[in-house]
Specification:
Layout lengths: L5 E19 L5 E19 L7 E6 L13 H12 L12 E6 L10 H16 L6 H9 L5 H6 L2 E5 L4 E4 L6 E7 L6 H15 L10 H9 L2 H7 L1 E2 L2 H7 L3 H10 L4 E4 L6 E5 L2 H13 L5 E7 L5 E2 L2
Helix pairs in contact: 1-2, 2-3, 5-8, 6-7
The structure holds 4-diphosphocytidyl-2-C-methyl-D-erythritol and adenosine-5'-triphosphate (ATP).
The site of adenosine-5'-triphosphate has 21 residues, from helix 1 and helix 2.
């Protein structure tokens, strides 16, 4: 296999159409039924040979660059290092694997849209090509699962159900395109903190935590391409926790609903809010309503489903 000198990968954000959170496991994770949906909001990761041998470096560009670590804690670097380890650290040319990563960030940081996981997935695909490893997407997904529960889906894309901690994926057949608006918030929410708040709320309510299961009405809506039925079926068990930690999101959701969204929910662990529209034009109207009401930092429109991480150059 021939190695290339520069590889650029485009990778989508996700929204969770159903996030059913089961009991807390002994390893600190929750068993989930997590219906992932990839949307057309993309980060780009470019991998090039670094100057120094054996180095793993990262630079981040974009409005939110200052919120992303540019060191070994960056999820893209962690992914590249995990791939190098998997491949035995030393390339066929006798030199240790190394990479310089450039992330062009458009996915909101700590926004509940899996931006860091997306960059990790993109780094795996880009380094696989840069180093000429030729691993299958399934092998990359398995390495990705060790970096974070959302990473395998960023490699798969489309619409898929995640079980376990969200890393075991089964594609879901979906018809047509869905039109979305995302209300971006100022500042992020920490994923472990939101899961912790969910546990706290449940314990306080003395709730018996049910084993999660996929919603058949949601699956039928996806299969039929029925946006109205999908809007009615959207559900996120982390939403009460995200609203408790960020009460202002309740008003954001209300404004979108009042403006005619077919469905409104917090995306994953938040604080981004997602609204399903009836058409691309309706999505633009919703976006304007959210912006003019001053209930978000910015509103962006996107379509789903889209493919997972792809090499674009
Ligand atoms: C909220 C979601 O984005 C929905 O897709 C994911 O469940 C979170 O996925 P992620 O950011 O890739 O999360 P990870 O990096 O795997 O885990 C971060 C932390 O989130 C919590 N976590 C995550 C996944 C899961 N099934 N149960 C959990 O309780 C745990 O506290 C864990 O330590
Ligand atoms: N490449 C990266 N991009 C964004 N954040 C990163 C990256 N690498 C590490 N991080 C750190 O991870 C934290 C969470 O970022 P991320 O954008 O993935 O959150 P999220 O979208 O809420 O995740 P999820 O939806 O998977 O729970 C950030 O606060 C940041 O410090």
């Amino acid at each position: 296999m021939t190695a290339t000198q520069r590889v650029t990968v485009r990778v989508p954000a996700k929204v969770n159409l159903q996030l059913a959170v089961g009991p807390l496991r002994d390893d600190g994770y929750h068993d989930l039924v997590n219906v992932f949906h990839a949307v057309s909001l993309f980060d780009e990761v470019t991998a090039t040979e670094p100057g120094a041998a054996g180095a793993f470096t990262v630079r981040v560009e974009g409005e939110a660059a200052s919120q992303v670590p540019a060191d070994a804690t960056n999820l893209a670097i962690r992914a590249a290092e995990a791939l190098a380890k998997h491949a035995g650290q030393i390339g066929a040319d006798g030199r240790p694997y190394a990479v310089d990563l450039l992330i062009r960030k458009a996915i909101p940081v700590a926004g509940g849209m899996a931006g860091g996981s997306a960059d990790a997935a993109a780094a795996l695909l880009a380094c696989d090509a840069l180093w000429g490893l030729g691993l299958s997407r399934e092998e990359l997904m398995e390495i990705g699962a060790g970096i974070g529960s959302d990473v395998p889906f960023a490699l798969l894309g489309g619409t898929a159900v995640g079980t376990g901690r969200g890393e075991r994926l089964t594609p879901v057949p979906a018809t047509g395109a869905f039109h979305w608006v995302f209300a971006l918030a100022d500042g992020g929410l920490s994923t472990p903190r939101v899961y912790g708040e969910c546990d706290r709320i449940r314990a306080e309510a003395g709730e018996e935590v049910a084993w999660p299961s996929a919603d058949e009405a949601l699956m039928a809506a996806l299969r039929d391409g029925d946006a109205r039925a999908l809007g009615a079926a959207l559900a996120n068990d982390l939403q009460p926790a995200a609203l408790a930690l960020r009460p202002s999101l309740a008003r954001t959701l209300d404004v979108g609903r009042d403006a005619g969204a077919l469905g409104a929910l917090v995306s994953g662990s938040g604080p981004t809010c997602a609204f399903l529209a009836a058409s691309a034009g309706h999505a633009r109207e919703l976006s304007e309503a959210l912006t003019s009401a001053g209930v978000c930092r910015a509103a962006v429109t996107a379509d789903g489903p889209v493919p997972g991480a792809e090499i674009v150059a």
